Write a sequence for this structure.
């Protein structure tokens, strides 16, 4: 039986894959390309301040291996610590990508933990939305901040599972559930994923998608891990669509009925 998984809708754009991947921390561009292909991802995020996509003509260009006609490039503002820096960076990205306006906003508040500065994030989001950008915003797992970002016009909110690059998985599933249950835009877990099971858990919780970078790039075999992440997204959303059984604490329920059993005595 064929199971039809609904498309991921972000703004007016439609995607078949619900796995988003990054391009940093890989050993070389060849591994980057192979892993991203194995992931099945259609959206690939690029840190404009750390990656060359044409602004440095004498350096290797990521777009030579991650081609815009094959993937949706999602420029991000990693490394920005103020709304002004983030806005400036994404305006540069729009010029480099011929008017492309789907972007990932992240404004950091601390260089050690890379925890988001949610005040600056909201301020930047409001400016960018007015400037015609479709903003996907990285944020904390605070349900109130997620709501404020949606009200500012963001097309997706991207709460962290745990700190960027930590690999700790989802540390606060209760806050995440509140965000999902109240959101009118896609909720995409961003940051903290460590392995395939973390992605499955996020999708089973009702997330629209998951973005991961370090968990693939720093795996022993990035290409194989990327394939595992692809499988985990599909398994997780199928489980969510199916609906899990109710948890019965302290109550056993045999999977086989006892009525009609053959007597042994």
């Amino acid at each position: 039986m064929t199971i039809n998984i609904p498309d991921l809708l972000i703004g007016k754009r439609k995607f078949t894959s619900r796995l988003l991947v990054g391009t940093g921390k890989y050993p070389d561009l060849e591994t980057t390309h192979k892993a991203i292909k194995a992931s099945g991802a259609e959206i690939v995020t690029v840190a404009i301040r750390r990656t060359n996509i044409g602004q440095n003509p004498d350096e290797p260009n990521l777009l030579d291996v991650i081609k815009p006609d094959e993937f949706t490039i999602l420029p991000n503002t990693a490394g920005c610590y103020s709304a002004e820096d983030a806005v400036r960076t994404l305006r540069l990205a729009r010029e480099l990508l011929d008017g492309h306006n789907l972007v990932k906003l992240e404004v950091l508040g601390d260089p050690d933990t890379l925890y988001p500065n949610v005040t600056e994030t909201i301020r930047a989001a409001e400016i960018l939305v007015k400037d015609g950008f479709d903003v996907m915003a990285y944020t904390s797992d605070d349900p109130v901040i997620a709501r404020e970002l949606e009200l500012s016009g963001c097309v997706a909110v991207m709460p962290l599972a745990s700190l960027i690059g930590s690999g700790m998985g989802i540390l606060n599933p209760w806050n995440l559930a509140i965000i999902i249950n109240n959101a009118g835009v896609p909720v995409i877990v961003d940051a903290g994923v460590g392995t395939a099971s973390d992605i499955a858990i996020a999708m089973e919780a009702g997330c629209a998608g998951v973005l991961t970078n370090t968990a693939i790039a720093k795996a022993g075999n990035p290409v194989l891990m990327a394939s595992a992440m692809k499988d985990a997204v599909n398994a997780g959303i199928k489980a969510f669509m199916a609906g899990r059984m109710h948890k019965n604490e302290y109550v056993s329920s045999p999977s086989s009925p006892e009525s009609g059993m053959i007597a042994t005595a």
Remarks:
- The two ends are 43 Å apart (CA to CA).
- The mean pLDDT is 90.
- The longest strand covers residues 134-139.
